[in-house]
Structures are given as C-alpha cells and as structure tokens.
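Structure first, sequence second, as always.
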C-alpha cells in the first residue's frame, strides 16, 4: 500500500464530515526536516533538541545549536516547528556532563531529567533559549518544556526564556515575531492542576510514551511489560478524555506527540476523543491520513463517548470492528 500512501501526500488530512486533523512529524536531526516534504506533513510537532546533545562528543555550543534550529526552520518554510527544550538526564545521560557522586539514580526515568535538570543547571537552558530565539528571528518560535509536573516549573522556564528575549532586545538583535509557549503533559500530576496552567499556555502536547509509563507504573523500555498494558485501555482513554475536555474549556490547542498517535487504531481513538493534532513518525503519516480521510469524526466521537461511559473492557476489539464495518 506504499504507493497508495504516497498518493495521499498532497491530499488534505480531513475526515468525511470535514474535521481537519493536523498531522505533524516527530523529528530530532537536521535530516528529519526533509521528511516533511516527503510525506506531506503540516509541520514538526516535536523536535527533540536533545538528539544533538546525545550525538555530540562535547557539549554543543550555542552557535552550533542555533545553526541546527535555523536549518530546521528553513527546511520547514512556513510550516510550524515545535522545539522541545532538552530532555536529558536520567537514562539519556551525557558523558561530558559532570555529575556528583550523590547523583546516582535508581530510577532515572523518574529522576533528575528534562525541565528539572534544566532549571537547576540554568546555564544550559539560557544558552538554548538564546539559540532558539536567534534562530527564529523574523519567525514564530514555538517552544515547549518536557516533564512539567507543576505550573511553577513552566513559569520559571518561561521567565528564563523571556529574560533572554529582553537581553536580545537590549542588544538590538532581530527577534522572533512571536514566541508561543507550550508544555508537555507526560507526568500525570500535571493533569490535576491544568486549570492553573492552561490560562498561561499557547498549546499543550501530550507525551503518551512517558504518560503511560507513569500512569501504569510500568517502565516503557521493559521487554516484559511492553505488551502488557494497552494504549486502548479504559484508564488511558478516560484520562486523555478529561485532559482534552479541560483544554476545550480553556480553548488551548492540544495535541498528542507520543508513539500512540502513529498507530492507526490508536490515532482513530484519539480523534474520537476530540484530538485534532497528532505528531507522529514520518512513516505513519500515510496510513494515519488514509484512516482520517475514511472516517466520520462525529460518528466516531459518539462511539467513544458510549464506550467510555459504559466502561467497555474490550475497547480495542470494539474499535477494530467499528473500523472494519466501514472498510477503514
Ligand atoms: C513522550 O514521552 O511521549 C514523548 C513524546 O517524549 P519522549 O518519547 O521523547 O520521551
Ligand atoms: Mg517523554
């Protein structure tokens, strides 16, 4: 069906009843930006900036970061790119970053990583903020922070970026036309305080990889647990449903950037919850777009509502049969 998916490249990502679903890609390297044209995506919904740090032998200097961000923005043209600030630490430890003896971690995924580390070692974050701001001169900078657990972490990170912006203004540097701030929802605790965070956000992005690991207390890399918990389980879908509903109340665009959105049936379930933006691996864009163009979103949303309200235990089977009946 490869040729069939390729033929979809220039066709809109719209359901039978006219719901527009933004299809973006996850990326991390300079070359990934070229995938945008190849698969016909709407932008980069997650640019994992830590990749550059992980493949370097030494800490990438600010100028080097800036060059990468600029190249990615140039490749994206007028399509949006959402840059995620570094998610390092924990299991993505950098060999050149010195750690003290008391920094040994038994549970690195739940450890000193991502925004936690970035706020403590703020030199790293300041350099990255400047690189992002300068690379986005004349454009919109979309920036989001990983592993936010409480609103103050987001606020502190945004303040840090704003300080860099003020500094650049003082230097008479050319600046982005706008900076849009987002947070990743991947720590379940954040869902309980979204009413406090959402008024400050331009967008929210749900990272289902870490979110499910923390919801089920199941290591995302553990081979024995890989098949144990289903993304189409009632617990996850009800959780996501609540998040989508509150984002609607606060009118904050919400997307999913975890691997879940790249699987056709899972993507269908997310659309059934009201999600209208998915950021997925480039190879999934074709199959997911084919599904989108075949479904009726309103009908699917009614089905999802029924399934969630009735507490159906066989969601995967029910969604599969719904899709099969419609030749999806
Ligand atoms: C996630 O956790 O779902 C996510 C998108 O981020 P990463 O996979 O890089 O942790
Ligand atoms: Mg994550």
């Amino acid at each position: 069906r490869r040729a069939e998916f390729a033929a979809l490249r220039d066709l809109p990502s719209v359901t039978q009843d006219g719901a527009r679903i933004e299809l973006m890609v996850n990326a991390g390297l300079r070359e990934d930006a070229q995938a945008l044209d190849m698969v016909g995506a709407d932008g980069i919904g997650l640019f994992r900036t830590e990749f550059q740090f992980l493949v370097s032998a030494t800490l990438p200097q600010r100028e080097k970061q800036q060059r990468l961000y600029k190249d990615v923005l140039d490749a994206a043209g007028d399509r949006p790119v959402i840059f995620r600030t570094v998610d390092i630490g924990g299991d993505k430890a950098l060999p050149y970053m010195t750690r003290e003896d008391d920094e040994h971690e038994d549970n690195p995924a739940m450890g000193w990583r991502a925004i936690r580390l970035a706020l403590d070692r703020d030199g790293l974050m300041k350099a990255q903020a400047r690189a992002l701001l300068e690379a986005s001169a004349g454009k919109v900078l979309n920036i989001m922070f990983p592993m936010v657990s409480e609103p103050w972490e987001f606020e502190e990170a945004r303040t840090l970026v704003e300080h860099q912006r003020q500094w650049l203004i003082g230097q008479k540097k050319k600046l982005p036309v706008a900076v849009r701030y987002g947070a990743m929802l991947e720590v379940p605790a954040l869902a309980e305080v979204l009413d406090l965070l959402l008024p400050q956000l331009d967008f929210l992005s749900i990272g289902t990889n870490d979110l499910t690991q923390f919801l089920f207390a199941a290591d995302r890399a553990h081979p024995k647990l890989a098949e144990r918990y289903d993304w189409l389980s009632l617990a996850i879908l009800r959780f996501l449903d609540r998040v989508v509903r509150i984002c609607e109340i606060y009118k904050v665009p919400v997307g999913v950037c975890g691997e879940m959105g790249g699987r056709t049936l899972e993507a269908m379930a997310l659309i059934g919850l009201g999600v209208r933006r998915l950021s997925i691996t480039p190879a999934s864009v074709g199959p997911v777009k084919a599904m989108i163009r075949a479904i009726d979103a309103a009908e699917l949303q009614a089905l999802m509502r029924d399934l969630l309200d009735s507490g159906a235990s066989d969601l995967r089977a029910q969604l599969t049969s719904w899709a099969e009946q419609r030749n999806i």
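Margin note: Strands lie at 22-27, 44-48, 81-84, 140-145, 178-185, 203-206, 254-256, 277-280.
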